[in-house]
Write a structure and sequence with these properties.
heterodimer; A: 109 residues; mainly alpha; 3 helical TM bundles of succinate and fumarate reductases; B: Ubiquitin-like (UB roll); Fumarate Reductase Iron-sulfur Protein, Chain B, domain 2
C-alpha cells in the first residue's frame, strides 16, 4: 500500500528532517566553540579525518534531499497541478546526489 | 480441482483470521471467494456488496494489505502461492467480519460542506457551463467519485489524525468550489480550511494510487490549499 514513489519521497523528507533536527543542536554547540579559538581549531582538525568527512557528506546529502524535496512539495501545493509531478521526485533526488558528489569532490580532491 | 486458502477476518475490532478452502475457478474475483465462503461454508460471515460489476463501490475490502474493490479484483492477480488474505477496510470501525461502519466516512463529506449550495441564478435558470471551461474541467476530474472509501482506507493521514476530513470529502469539496452554479464558494473553503482539513494532507498520494476510478484526490486537495491561501491573503476566510 505504501510501495509507490510519492510515499517514499514523503519518508525521505520526514526522516531527513528528523535527522537534521537532531544534528542542529550539535551544530550550534560547535558554533559556540568559536568563542575560544583553540577549541574551534581543535574540533576543525578532528573533523578533517576521512570518516568525519564521510559522515559530513551524508549530512550534506540529507540537507539537499530535504531542501529539494521541500521545493517539490511547495511546487505541488502552490503551482497549478502537473501530471509530471512524479518526475520531480527523481529530479529532486538527482539534484541532492549531485550536491553530495560536489561536496565529496571539494573535500577530498 | 485446485483449491485456494482464503484467510478472512472474523469478529469486529477484536477478532482473528480464519482460513477456508475455496475451489479455484477461472476468472474468479475476490468477491466470488467471499460469496462462496458465505454461501457454502459459513453463512454467519458478514460482508457488503450490491452490483458486483464495479459500479456501486460497496464491496471494497482490504485484499493482501491493499484496499480494493473485490468485485473488480481477479484472484489470479493477487493470490500468492494459492493464498489470499481478506480484511475489512482500514480506518473505519468494523461492524462484523468484513463489514465496516461507513457512517463516519459519509459524515466527513458533510463536515467538509460537501453538498451543493444553489446560487440565486442557478435557481432561476439552467446554467450554461461549457465543457472547455477550466473550472468545469477541474470539477470533471474529480466528479466520478462514488464514495467507496478505498482512498480513505489507503490514507495514512486518516490513520494518524482520525479527525482529518480525508481525500474523498476534500475531493468532493473541490468539485463544488469549481461548480459555477454553486453559491457558497467561501463557505466551502471555510469548512475545509480547519486544522484537520486540506492542510493536513502530506501528499503521500496513496489515495490516487488506489482510487479504482482513477481520480487523483491529491490534485484536488492541492487545489484547495491554493484557494484557501489566496482567500486568506485577501482576508475572505
Amino acid at each position: 500500500m505504501r510501495r509507490h514513489a510519492s510515499y517514499r519521497a514523503f519518508l525521505v523528507h520526514r526522516l531527513s528532517g528528523v535527522a537534521l533536527a537532531l544534528f542542529l543542536p550539535v551544530h550550534l554547540v560547535v558554533l559556540g566553540l568559536a568563542l575560544e579559538a583553540a577549541a574551534l581549531d581543535g574540533f576543525l582538525n578532528w573533523s578533517a579525518q576521512p570518516l568525519v568527512k564521510a559522515a559530513e557528506t551524508i549530512l550534506v546529502v540529507l540537507l539537499a534531499l530535504h531542501l529539494f524535496g521541500g521545493l517539490r512539495l511547495l511546487a505541488i501545493e502552490l503551482l497549478p497541478w502537473s501530471d509530471r509531478q512524479k518526475d520531480w521526485i527523481g529530479w529532486a533526488a538527482a539534484a541532492a546526489l549531485t550536491v553530495g558528489a560536489g561536496f565529496v569532490v571539494r573535500s577530498f580532491i | 480441482m485446485t483449491t485456494l486458502e482464503v484467510e478472512i477476518w472474523r469478529g469486529a475490532e477484536e477478532g482473528r483470521y480464519e482460513t477456508y478452502e475455496v475451489p479455484s475457478q477461472p476468472s474468479q474475483t475476490v468477491l466470488d471467494l467471499v460469496t462462496y465462503v458465505q454461501r457454502k461454508l459459513d453463512p454467519s460471515l458478514a460482508y457488503r456488496f450490491a452490483c458486483r460489476v464495479g459500479v456501486c463501490g460497496s464491496c471494497a475490502m482490504t485484499v493482501n494489505g491493499t484496499p480494493r474493490w473485490t468485485c473488480r479484483t481477479h484472484v489470479q492477480k493477487v493470490a500468492t502461492q494459492g493464498r489470499v488474505r481478506i480484511a475489512p477496510l482500514r480506518n473505519l470501525t468494523v461492524v462484523k467480519d468484513l463489514a465496516t461502519d461507513m457512517a463516519p466516512f459519509f459524515d466527513k463529506v458533510q463536515e467538509a460542506r460537501g453538498r451543493f449550495i444553489p446560487s440565486d441564478a442557478a435557481a432561476k435558470s439552467v446554467a450554461e457551463v461549457p465543457p472547455e471551461e477550466p473550472k468545469r474541467k477541474e470539477a470533471d476530474a474529480g466528479i466520478e467519485c462514488i464514495g467507496c472509501g478505498v482512498c480513505h482506507a489507503a490514507c495514512d493521514v486518516v490513520r494518524w489524525l482520525p479527525e482529518y476530513l480525508g481525500p474523498a470529502a476534500l475531493n468532493r469539496a473541490w468539485t463544488l468550489v469549481n461548480d459555477a452554479r454553486d453559491g457558497d464558494r467561501i463557505g466551502h473553503l471555510r469548512a475545509i480550511a480547519e486544522d484537520a482539513g486540506c492542510h493536513a494532507c502530506h501528499a503521500h498520494q496513496s489515495c490516487a494510487e488506489h482510487c479504482p476510478v482513477g481520480i487523483n484526490p491529491t490534485r484536488s486537495i492541492s487545489g484547495l490549499k491554493r484557494l484557501v491561501l489566496m482567500a486568506a491573503i485577501r482576508g475572505r476566510l
